[in-house]
Protein backbone atom coordinates (compact mmCIF):
# COMPACT_ATOMS: atom_id res chain seq x y z
CA UNK A 1 0.00 0.00 0.00
CA UNK A 2 1.28 3.47 -0.91
CA UNK A 3 0.85 6.17 1.72
CA UNK A 4 1.02 9.87 0.94
CA UNK A 5 2.45 12.28 3.48
CA UNK A 6 0.40 15.46 4.03
CA UNK A 7 3.54 17.56 3.61
CA UNK A 8 4.76 16.03 0.36
CA UNK A 9 5.63 18.31 -2.55
CA UNK A 10 4.11 16.31 -5.40
CA UNK A 11 1.69 18.96 -6.60
CA UNK A 12 -1.56 17.98 -8.29
CA UNK A 13 -2.86 20.50 -10.80
CA UNK A 14 -1.64 23.85 -12.04
CA UNK A 15 1.65 25.36 -10.88
CA UNK A 16 3.33 28.73 -11.48
CA UNK A 17 -0.08 30.32 -11.09
CA UNK A 18 1.02 33.88 -10.33
CA UNK A 19 3.24 34.17 -13.40
CA UNK A 20 0.50 32.91 -15.69
CA UNK A 21 -2.09 35.22 -14.22
CA UNK A 22 0.25 38.21 -14.22
CA UNK A 23 0.66 37.73 -17.97
CA UNK A 24 -3.13 37.84 -18.30
CA UNK A 25 -3.40 40.95 -16.11
CA UNK A 26 -0.69 42.86 -17.92
CA UNK A 27 -2.12 41.99 -21.34
CA UNK A 28 -5.72 42.81 -20.43
CA UNK A 29 -4.90 46.13 -18.74
CA UNK A 30 -2.26 47.39 -21.17
CA UNK A 31 -2.90 51.05 -21.93
CA UNK A 32 -5.80 51.36 -19.49
CA UNK A 33 -6.03 54.53 -17.43
CA UNK A 34 -8.49 53.10 -14.93
CA UNK A 35 -7.71 49.96 -12.92
CA UNK A 36 -10.21 48.17 -10.70
CA UNK A 37 -9.24 45.32 -8.41
CA UNK A 38 -10.51 43.47 -5.36
CA UNK A 39 -8.60 42.32 -2.28
CA UNK A 40 -9.40 39.15 -0.34
CA UNK A 41 -7.35 37.63 2.46
CA UNK A 42 -7.02 34.88 5.05
CA UNK A 43 -9.24 32.29 3.41
CA UNK A 44 -7.63 29.48 5.41
CA UNK A 45 -10.06 26.65 6.24
CA UNK A 46 -13.10 28.74 5.22
CA UNK A 47 -13.68 26.97 1.93
CA UNK A 48 -17.44 27.59 1.70
CA UNK A 49 -16.96 31.29 2.37
CA UNK A 50 -14.18 31.44 -0.22
CA UNK A 51 -16.49 29.86 -2.78
CA UNK A 52 -19.10 32.47 -1.91
CA UNK A 53 -16.51 35.21 -2.36
CA UNK A 54 -15.69 33.88 -5.82
CA UNK A 55 -19.38 33.85 -6.72
CA UNK A 56 -19.79 37.42 -5.46
CA UNK A 57 -16.77 38.65 -7.38
CA UNK A 58 -17.94 36.89 -10.53
CA UNK A 59 -21.17 38.88 -10.41
CA UNK A 60 -19.20 42.06 -11.02
CA UNK A 61 -18.59 43.32 -14.55
CA UNK A 62 -16.14 46.04 -13.52
CA UNK A 63 -13.24 43.98 -12.14
CA UNK A 64 -9.76 43.63 -13.67
CA UNK A 65 -8.22 41.19 -11.19
CA UNK A 66 -8.24 39.88 -7.62
CA UNK A 67 -5.37 40.14 -5.15
CA UNK A 68 -5.19 37.61 -2.27
CA UNK A 69 -2.94 38.89 0.53
CA UNK A 70 -2.09 35.49 1.99
CA UNK A 71 -2.95 32.75 4.45
CA UNK A 72 -4.59 30.31 2.09
CA UNK A 73 -3.54 27.48 4.38
CA UNK A 74 -3.80 26.97 8.11
CA UNK A 75 -1.09 24.35 8.57
CA UNK A 76 1.01 24.58 5.40
CA UNK A 77 -0.60 21.45 3.96
CA UNK A 78 -0.30 20.81 0.25
CA UNK A 79 -3.98 19.86 0.04
CA UNK A 80 -4.97 23.20 1.57
CA UNK A 81 -3.11 25.13 -1.11
CA UNK A 82 -4.47 22.93 -3.88
CA UNK A 83 -8.05 23.33 -2.66
CA UNK A 84 -7.73 27.11 -2.39
CA UNK A 85 -6.10 27.34 -5.82
CA UNK A 86 -8.91 25.30 -7.34
CA UNK A 87 -11.61 27.47 -5.76
CA UNK A 88 -9.91 30.70 -6.83
CA UNK A 89 -9.48 29.35 -10.34
CA UNK A 90 -13.26 29.67 -10.62
CA UNK A 91 -12.84 33.45 -10.83
CA UNK A 92 -13.67 35.01 -14.19
CA UNK A 93 -10.72 37.36 -13.82
CA UNK A 94 -7.07 36.56 -13.03
CA UNK A 95 -5.86 36.44 -9.44
CA UNK A 96 -2.49 36.57 -7.69
CA UNK A 97 -1.66 35.25 -4.22
CA UNK A 98 0.81 36.49 -1.62
CA UNK A 99 2.51 34.48 1.10
CA UNK A 100 0.93 34.53 4.57
CA UNK A 101 2.46 33.50 7.87
CA UNK A 102 0.37 30.31 8.09
CA UNK A 103 1.46 29.48 4.55
CA UNK A 104 5.02 29.20 5.88
CA UNK A 105 4.30 26.36 8.31
CA UNK A 106 5.86 22.92 7.74
CA UNK A 107 6.63 22.62 3.98
CA UNK A 108 4.16 25.37 3.12
CA UNK A 109 6.77 27.76 1.76
CA UNK A 110 7.98 25.13 -0.71
CA UNK A 111 4.41 24.33 -1.73
CA UNK A 112 3.63 28.02 -2.20
CA UNK A 113 6.67 28.48 -4.40
CA UNK A 114 5.68 25.52 -6.55
CA UNK A 115 2.03 26.40 -6.94
CA UNK A 116 2.20 30.20 -6.99
CA UNK A 117 5.82 31.31 -7.36
CA UNK A 118 8.27 33.54 -5.56
CA UNK A 119 7.22 35.33 -2.38
CA UNK A 120 8.37 38.78 -3.59
CA UNK A 121 7.10 39.83 -7.00
CA UNK A 122 5.73 42.76 -8.95
CA UNK A 123 3.57 43.42 -11.98
CA UNK A 124 2.06 46.30 -13.93
CA UNK A 125 -1.64 46.90 -14.49
CA UNK A 126 -2.26 49.85 -16.77
CA UNK A 127 0.00 52.60 -15.44
CA UNK A 128 0.16 51.17 -11.91
CA UNK A 129 3.01 49.08 -10.53
CA UNK A 130 1.94 46.54 -7.90
CA UNK A 131 4.61 45.42 -5.41
CA UNK A 132 3.69 42.18 -3.64
CA UNK A 133 5.93 41.57 -0.64
CA UNK A 134 6.67 38.91 1.94
CA UNK A 135 6.46 40.61 5.34
CA UNK A 136 6.26 37.50 7.54
CA UNK A 137 9.60 38.07 9.26
CA UNK A 138 8.74 36.05 12.36
CA UNK A 139 8.31 32.88 10.28
CA UNK A 140 11.84 33.31 8.95
CA UNK A 141 13.35 33.85 12.42
CA UNK A 142 14.62 37.22 11.21
CA UNK A 143 17.41 35.30 9.47
CA UNK A 144 16.34 36.28 5.94
CA UNK A 145 15.74 39.66 4.35
CA UNK A 146 12.05 39.96 5.23
CA UNK A 147 10.85 42.38 4.06
CA UNK A 148 13.33 42.31 1.20
CA UNK A 149 14.55 45.90 1.04
CA UNK A 150 16.92 45.07 -1.81
CA UNK A 151 14.00 43.86 -3.92
CA UNK A 152 12.11 47.10 -3.22
CA UNK A 153 15.16 49.22 -4.07
CA UNK A 154 15.70 47.36 -7.33
CA UNK A 155 12.07 47.90 -8.24
CA UNK A 156 12.52 51.60 -7.57
CA UNK A 157 15.66 51.70 -9.70
CA UNK A 158 14.09 49.87 -12.65
CA UNK A 159 10.58 51.21 -13.05
CA UNK A 160 8.96 49.91 -16.25
CA UNK A 161 8.13 52.45 -18.92
CA UNK A 162 4.66 53.93 -18.55
CA UNK A 163 4.35 53.36 -14.80
CA UNK A 164 3.01 56.44 -13.02
CA UNK A 165 1.69 55.07 -9.72
CA UNK A 166 2.42 52.34 -7.18
CA UNK A 167 0.32 50.12 -4.91
CA UNK A 168 1.97 47.84 -2.35
CA UNK A 169 0.47 44.59 -1.04
CA UNK A 170 1.64 42.42 1.86
CA UNK A 171 0.24 39.95 4.36
CA UNK A 172 1.33 41.38 7.72
CA UNK A 173 1.30 45.14 8.08
CA UNK A 174 3.92 47.25 9.86
CA UNK A 175 3.94 47.08 13.66
CA UNK A 176 2.24 43.68 13.76
CA UNK A 177 3.94 40.81 15.59
CA UNK A 178 4.99 39.28 12.25
CA UNK A 179 6.67 42.37 10.82
CA UNK A 180 10.34 43.20 11.33
CA UNK A 181 9.57 46.44 13.10
CA UNK A 182 13.26 47.27 13.55
CA UNK A 183 13.25 48.38 9.93
CA UNK A 184 9.67 49.64 9.60
CA UNK A 185 10.70 53.26 8.94
CA UNK A 186 13.38 52.09 6.52
CA UNK A 187 10.77 49.96 4.75
CA UNK A 188 8.39 52.88 4.38
CA UNK A 189 11.15 55.16 3.13
CA UNK A 190 11.90 52.90 0.18
CA UNK A 191 8.23 52.34 -0.59
CA UNK A 192 7.87 56.10 -0.90
CA UNK A 193 10.74 56.12 -3.39
CA UNK A 194 8.46 54.27 -5.81
CA UNK A 195 6.50 56.38 -8.33
CA UNK A 196 3.57 58.14 -6.65
CA UNK A 197 2.80 55.59 -3.92
CA UNK A 198 -1.00 55.52 -3.61
CA UNK A 199 -1.67 53.17 -0.69
CA UNK A 200 -0.86 49.76 0.77
CA UNK A 201 -3.09 46.74 1.39
CA UNK A 202 -2.62 43.86 3.81
CA UNK A 203 -4.45 41.13 5.74
CA UNK A 204 -3.44 38.96 8.70
CA UNK A 205 -5.47 40.62 11.47
CA UNK A 206 -8.90 39.35 10.33
CA UNK A 207 -10.34 42.86 10.57
CA UNK A 208 -11.26 45.82 8.41
CA UNK A 209 -9.19 48.88 9.25
CA UNK A 210 -7.61 51.96 7.71
CA UNK A 211 -4.43 53.35 9.25
CA UNK A 212 -1.76 55.88 8.46
CA UNK A 213 1.04 54.12 10.31
CA UNK A 214 3.79 56.62 9.48
CA UNK A 215 1.82 59.91 9.51
CA UNK A 216 2.98 60.59 5.96
CA UNK A 217 -0.31 60.55 4.06
CA UNK A 218 0.03 56.90 2.95
CA UNK A 219 -2.88 54.79 4.09
CA UNK A 220 -2.76 51.09 4.87
CA UNK A 221 -6.01 49.22 4.19
CA UNK A 222 -6.54 45.95 6.05
CA UNK A 223 -8.76 43.25 4.56
CA UNK A 224 -10.57 40.85 6.86
CA UNK A 225 -10.77 37.06 6.65
CA UNK A 226 -13.18 35.05 4.51
CA UNK A 227 -15.16 34.03 7.60
CA UNK A 228 -16.34 37.63 8.00
CA UNK A 229 -17.55 37.67 4.39
CA UNK A 230 -16.28 40.93 2.93
CA UNK A 231 -13.69 42.10 0.44
CA UNK A 232 -12.11 45.42 -0.54
CA UNK A 233 -12.67 47.05 -3.92
CA UNK A 234 -10.40 49.76 -5.32
CA UNK A 235 -10.59 51.95 -8.41
CA UNK A 236 -7.54 53.91 -9.55
CA UNK A 237 -7.71 56.57 -12.26
CA UNK A 238 -6.51 60.07 -13.08
CA UNK A 239 -8.62 61.49 -10.25
CA UNK A 240 -6.90 59.36 -7.59
CA UNK A 241 -8.50 56.29 -6.08
CA UNK A 242 -11.66 55.11 -4.35
CA UNK A 243 -12.07 52.42 -1.70
CA UNK A 244 -15.08 50.32 -0.79
CA UNK A 245 -15.79 47.48 1.65
CA UNK A 246 -18.17 45.00 0.03
CA UNK A 247 -20.07 42.41 2.06
CA UNK A 248 -21.20 39.16 0.48
From TrEMBL:
Q: Which molecular function term from Gene Ontology is one that the record holds?
A: hydrolase activity
| Ranges of residues in domain Calcineurin-like phosphoesterase | 35-206
The family database entries (Pfam families) matched by this protein are listed as: Metallophos
InterPro entries, per this entry?
Calcineurin-like_PHP, Metallo-depent_PP-like, STPP_CPPED1
List the SUPFAM superfamilies hit by this protein, alphabetically: Metallo-dependent phosphatases (SSF56300)
Q: Which top-rank group of organisms is this from? A: Bacteria
Q: Where are the transmembrane segments?
A: none
Q: What is this protein called?
A: Metallophosphoesterase
Organism source for this protein?
Phocaeicola plebeius
